[in-house]
């Protein structure tokens, strides 16, 4: 494995090393694993392997515990932080997919409302009857970019 492939979730540290890096006793790490507080990956032989993120979590657990928080509250905080992290990754993935789609289809897409109210996609350069409402839809780069520009309308600009 090259250093470029190493990320914060790569399980590389044995329990003794993780305990030293986090400033805890190995038995404490075993207890946290049993409680589901910080659960490391396992090797085929069953040995625990901690990642850099696990070590960060262990340090955070130690800090919160020293501040007087109970283990159930700490477990809930870690659970919520994991969920937020997952959601950030999902948003980043979706933004990448939108960016790729926007690169594949430069320019806006034109839709027309049919007589029954159905939405019909038109090819670029296609003319429509005057009685048909035409809406130009241009996807936003990202939510942050649109917020910076003061755009609140998710449909984008419209023309009749």
From TrEMBL:
Keywords: Coiled coil, DNA-binding, Stress response. It holds the Pfam family MerR_1. Residues 15-80 form the HTH merR-type domain. PROSITE patterns: HTH_MERR_2. It comes from the Bacteria. Residues 77-104 form a coiled coil. InterPro entries: DNA-bd_dom_put_sf (IPR009061), MerR-type_HTH_dom (IPR000551), MerR_fam (IPR047057). Residues 141-160 are annotated as: Disordered. PANTHER family: HTH-TYPE TRANSCRIPTIONAL REGULATOR YFMP, REDOX-CYCLING DRUG-SENSING TRANSCRIPTIONAL ACTIVATOR SOXR. This is Heat shock protein transcriptional repressor HspR. It comes from Microbacterium alkaliflavum. The lineage of its organism: Bacteria, Bacillati, Actinomycetota, Actinomycetes, Micrococcales.
């Amino acid at each position: 494995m090259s250093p470029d492939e190493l990320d914060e979730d790569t399980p590389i540290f044995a329990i003794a090393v993780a305990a030293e890096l986090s400033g805890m006793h190995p038995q404490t790490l075993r207890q946290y694993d049993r409680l589901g507080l910080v659960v490391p990956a396992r090797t085929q032989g069953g040995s625990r392997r901690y990642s850099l993120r696990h070590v960060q979590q262990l340090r955070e657990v130690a800090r919160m515990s020293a501040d007087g928080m109970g283990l159930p509250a700490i477990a809930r905080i870690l659970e919520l932080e994991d969920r937020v992290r997952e959601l950030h990754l999902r948003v980043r993935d979706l933004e990448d997919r939108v960016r790729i789609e926007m690169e594949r289809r430069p320019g806006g897409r034109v839709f027309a409302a049919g007589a029954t109210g159905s939405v019909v996609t038109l090819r670029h350069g296609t003319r429509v009857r005057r009685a048909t409402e035409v809406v130009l839809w241009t996807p936003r780069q990202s939510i942050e970019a649109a917020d910076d520009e003061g755009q609140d309308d998710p449909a984008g600009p419209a023309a009749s």
